[in-house]
Amino acid sequence: MAHVTAAERRPQLIAAAIELMAREGVTAGSTRAIAAELGVAQATVHYTFGTKADLYRAVLEFLTEELLTGVQLSVARATSLEEALRATADAFWADLAERPELHLLWFELITFSLRSPDLREVVERYHSGITDLAVTVLTETERRTARPFSLPPAELADFFLSGLDGIGMHLLITGGDLPDESTRRALDRLVTAAVGLAYADSPGAE
Q1: Are 171 and 96 within 8 A, CB to CB?
Q2: Which CATH number fits the domain that encloses residue 66?
Q3: PROSITE patterns under this entry (predicted)?
């Protein structure tokens, strides 16, 4: 059997961990279970990552990179504030519809990580990254459209991102595996509310 390097094994183990925990929950993600999911020895997990916390960190970093990349791609062609916000909402909807099991896993990992000093900084880095990205997009939109916002871009970003988090959590709590028309309406209203807030004090407010 050909030797598999740690660099090659790493993405395989991350994928196996995500598959297992998305199916059975974060608490099922022991190094033994993850090794069995991939069909390798438990020692392989420890050799590749060192500790379970290091593996969880890698899973979190992988998922956060996916989310950040998805947001960047969704707003790249937006020419107005509404287009940028709607593109983000559409990407959020698509992610919920296409990967509902990862949506639950993401919230589980966030909650789990906030109680772990070793992992909390990954969550904080994700939050800073998504907020910084939103602020950058909003600032550039304000500059490009030459239409000033009624509040700082950072406050508008917090409002919109908090709304997305709330809609996602509501879907999980109400037991919906997939977003439905009520989810779509909630996202549309969030976009409308954010645009209205942005231009509340501007001439020709929307």
Answers
A1: yes
A2: 1.10.357.10
A3: HTH_TETR_2
Residue 197, CA distances (Å) to 19, 177, 179 in order? 40, 31, 26
Give dist(CA 105, CA 97) in Å, integer: 14
Q: Which amino acid is it at 145? A: T
Tokens of 100: 């509902």
What are 10-25's pLDDT values in tens digits?
999 999 999 999 999 9
How many angstroms separate the Cα of 43 from the Cα of each of 20, 26, 32, 47, 50?
18, 20, 9, 6, 9
**Token code pair at residue 118:** 């070793």
The dihedral region occupied by 171, where left means phi > 0, alpha psi between -120 and 50, and beta the remainder, is alpha
Residue 107 three-state SS: helix
What's the whole-model pTM score? Answer: 0.83
Same domain, yes or no, for 86 and 30?
no
Residue 203 falls within a domain, yes or no?
no
Q: How do residues 147-197 score in pLDDT, each as one tens digit?
A: 999 999 999 999 999 999 999 999 888 876 678 899 999 999 999 999 999
| Contact status, residue 58 vs residue 6, Cβ threshold 8 Å | no
Rg, the chain, Cα only:
20
